[in-house]
Write a structure and sequence with these properties.
mainly beta; six-stranded antiparallel β-sheet; five-stranded antiparallel β-sheet; 14% helix
Length: 170
């Protein structure tokens, strides 16, 4: 039997663009989205969604690709009687759009009314908080403003302690 000698030749490696090129393309994509993205978000076109924390209307969220900005969360919470109670690292603002009520932050009550701004402090172990309508049956709403890169940098977690009385698990 004849011996056969097999010699392997090295395959040419596929050329990949330098990583910088991917970063550059991503920056241009973000710029294009900002230039072409939706500038006005019409509240009447957005649905209300009942969640375990409250009744919410999402205006801006990182998962909404069609917007002119990114990195923000804007949502309205409608507090019928009271919200659920949860804990996270804080670092957000809540602008009271309508009504009167109070928020407990780590067990301390803070009263507010239309036009007020509620600031949840940033804490390493988080802030436990819950929102209450002072006049159940009357409108009571606030707008949350959250810069998501800060939340991500803090490795923020979210722990639900009590669900909204309006939540019906599906």
């Amino acid at each position: 039997m004849a011996e056969r000698e097999v010699q392997r030749t090295k395959e040419a490696e596929a050329k990949q663009a330098p990583f910088y090129e991917h970063v550059y393309a991503n920056w241009n994509l973000m710029k294009e989205k900002a230039n072409k993205g939706k500038v006005v978000i019409r509240g009447k076109e957005l649905p209300w969604e009942q969640g375990r924390q409250a009744l919410l209307k999402w205006y801006v969220h990182p998962l909404r690709e069609e917007l002119a900005i990114s990195g923000w969360l804007f949502f309205v919470q409608d507090i019928r009687t009271h919200s659920g109670r949860h804990r996270h690292q804080g670092g957000l603002a809540l602008y009271v759009v309508e009504g009167t009520g109070w928020t407990t932050v780590d067990g301390v009550r803070h009263d507010w009314e239309e036009g007020d701004l509620i600031l949840l402090p940033t804490k390493v172990r988080g802030v436990e908080h819950q929102h209450f309508n002072a006049k159940p049956g009357t409108p009571c709403k606030w707008l949350a403003i959250i810069y998501t890169p800060m939340v991500e940098a803090m490795s923020s977690e979210l722990e639900q302690k009590e669900v909204s009385p309006d939540w019906a698990h599906v």
